[in-house]
Amino acid sequence: MVKRTPHGQGRREEGERPTAEAARDKASAREIYRDVESGYYVFVGSRGRTHVFTEDGEHHTSFRTTQANRERRVDEGKWERVSRDELPDGLK
C-alpha cells in the first residue's frame, strides 16, 4: 500500500487520476528525477504517468507528462535525473 499525503489522497479521490498505478510505476520506473525546489522524487511510468513522492516514501501527487516536458524541466534546472541507487531509503 502507498502512504499518501493529504494532497495525494485528495487527488486520488478525484477519480480519473493515474494514482492507482503509483506504487507499481515507482517500482519499475526507468526515469527517476528529483525536484530541485521541493526535494520530492519523480517516477515516470508508462504512457507518461508521473508520480511524485516525498523523501520518506509518501505519495504526493500524480499527473501525465511528455518526454519533451520532462526534458525541458531538466534543461531549466527544475528536475535532476537520479539513479535508483541514489534514492533515499524511504523510496527504495
Commentary on this structure:
The chain has 92 residues and is of the alpha+beta class. It has a domain at 31-91. It has helices at residues 6-13, 22-28, 67-75; strands at 31-35, 41-44, 49-53, 59-64, 79-81. The chain has a 5-stranded antiparallel β-sheet. A hairpin with a 5-residue loop joins strand 1 and strand 2. 24% of the residues are buried. The mean pLDDT is 89.
Briefly say what this structure is:
The chain has 92 residues and is an alpha+beta fold.
Number of helices: 3
Q: Compute the CA-based radius of gyration.
A: 12 Å
Query: Average pLDDT value?
Result: 89
Element-level helix/strand string: HHEEEEHE
Helix content: 25-40%
| Sequence stretches where pLDDT stays below 50 over 5 or more residues | none
Shape: globular
- Helical/strand content category: alpha+beta
Our estimate of the beta-strand percent is 25-35%
List strands and helices in order, with pairings.
Elements (H helix, E strand, L loop, with lengths): L5 H8 L8 H7 L2 E5 L5 E4 L4 E5 L5 E6 L2 H9 L3 E3 L11
Antiparallel strand pairs: 1-2, 1-5, 2-3, 3-4
